[in-house]
Amino acid sequence: MFKGSMVAMATPMHADGSLDEDSLARLVEFHIENDTDAIIAVGTTGESATLDIPEHSYVIKRVVDLVARRIPVIGGTGANSTSEAIELTQNAKNAGVDACLLVTPYYNKPTQEGLYLHFKAVAEAVSIDQILYNVPGRTAVDMLPDTVARLSVVDNIIGVKEATGSVERASEIIASCDDNFGVYSGEDHNAMEVILAGGHGVISVTANVAPRLMHDMCDAALAADRAAATKINDKLIPLHRELFCESNPIPAKWALQQMGLIEKGIRLPLTWLSEARHQNVRAALETAGVL
Questions:
Q1: Is 161 a residue of the active site?
Q2: Conformation bin of residue 142: beta by default, left when phi > 0, alpha when psi is -120 to 50
Q3: Is residue 70 domain-resident?
Q4: Domain presence at residue 228
Q5: Whole-structure pTM value
């Protein structure tokens, strides 16, 4: 089972939107040096929606090669087309990932039965461990706990990233699934509470810029040390807030550029962080001690 702070890593780009391979290598080393527990390559924070299939598969393969088995790599392979999700998942398996993360189909608004059949089809088509990802605020569909529980008995569906922002929702899933089914917060602001309630970690945006603190906070929470986890999390609270002041990954990419880790590159329709937001994001970085 995967545990701890797993970064939903931004995909670095040049100003023209092309892949920045030097910065990609730099980000991978930054996370390994700072004890990130796993890297998610080309998840939704990695701008998966604007990478075509060859680019998407290439970045995952490149991250696998750069990591060189030092920590787990999870490929983001979700799509709103089941056949495309199968193709991306198979490509990620061929690239050598340790598991795949699949977001619920966006825009289509499938029923709960449609969600069940979609994820079951991908799991049956590609024999690799798979983590479900529920983020209704971005997809317009909410995968309910009963559906997660139905899917949890599929052999290679091993966990869920739950991003409704509700600790109660995460607790309901924990209670309804076996102990070996991973439940991961998809919201940095409640990650500590989800872990203390029995969750296994977080798939994190904040870890892009504060990987060491996120790792240490998760370690403390996994050890049920609320006091130690809270002390660390207090430094992170401004980042949890300000990294979502505009659509993710806009603020995270600006922060990484300010830290000297990536160039000023993002793909339309996303734009660079508004100047009016700079001061608050910078202050959050300073509070966390990472700038």
A1: yes
A2: beta
A3: yes
A4: no
A5: 0.97
Single out the catalytic residue among 61, 93, 116, 133.
Answer: 133
Domain range for 88 is 4-223
92 within a domain of the structure (yes/no):
yes
Decide if 133 is catalytic.
yes
Given the structure tokens 């869920």, which residue do they identify? 160
- As to burial, measured by CB atoms within 10 angstroms (0-12 exposed, 13-18 middle, 19+ buried), residue 44 is buried
Residue 150 lies in a domain: yes
Would you state the pLDDT for residue 138?
95
C-beta separation of 39 from 31 below 8 A? yes
pLDDT in tens, 216-245: 999 999 999 999 999 999 999 999 999 999
Q: What are phi and psi of 241, to 5 degrees?
A: -80, -55
CA distances from 198 to 26, 83, 195, 236 (A): 33, 34, 5, 21
Task: Summarize the chain as % helix, strand, coil (round to 5).
Answer: 50, 15, 35
What is the rounded distance in angstroms from the CA atom of residue 254 to the CA atom of residue 13? 12
Which residues are paired to 74 by β-bridges?
40, 99
Q: What is the secondary structure of 186-217 as a DSSP string?
A: S-GGGHHHHHHTT--EEEESGGGT-HHHHHHH
The two three-digit tokens of residue 291, written as one number: 């700038």
CATH of the domain at 22: 3.20.20.70
Catalytic member of 61, 93, 116, 161: 161
Residue 13 per-residue DSSP state: B
